[in-house]
Design brief:
By secondary structure, the protein is mostly helical. It is built from 7 helices and no strands.
Length: 141
């Protein structure tokens, strides 16, 4: 059986790929806001747009979002197989967990940014310190 050698994406590569994807998603997010107007509906539409974007691209033949593809990065399972659409949905949902306080009404507006910050640290800081450069969202999936 042929042994695959895995080279894990660098920290800066992952950061820049994420920034590129965020910039790309600003366009449909802005259109949704302009067309829908209502903040609640816009938030749901933006979430669904992001879900579709990440699910489609990471489970497609590209195995990467446009940002990752531009930097030569690929998303694969631990066994080196491509993600299925279900895998991609689960990964996106796990990736989104730190931002959930943004969508609540029972946490004070002053506490939300700090809560999101600390949840993000717990979620994504392992990328900086693990040899595989994976975050909590990757471990969950």
């Amino acid at each position: 059986m042929k042994q695959l050698h895995t080279i894990y994406a660098g920290r800066l590569e992952r950061l820049f790929a994420n920034l590129i994807d965020t910039i790309i998603l600003v366009i449909p997010g802005g259109l949704a806001a302009a067309l829908l107007g209502d903040e609640g509906i816009t938030t749901i539409a933006t979430f669904l747009i992001s879900l579709g974007y990440y699910t489609h691209f990471t489970s497609s033949n590209w195995q990467a979002t446009p940002g990752k593809r531009l930097l030569g990065l690929y998303v694969v399972r631990l066994d080196h197989r491509a993600l299925t659409p279900r895998d991609a949905v689960e990964r996106f949902l796990a990736y989104s967990i730190p931002s959930l306080p943004l969508y609540t009404s029972f946490i004070s507006d002053q506490a939300v940014p700090m809560l999101v910050f600390w949840l993000s640290m717990v979620w994504f800081l392992p990328i900086l310190f693990t040899s595989e450069r994976i975050g909590t969202h990757d471990r969950l999936c």
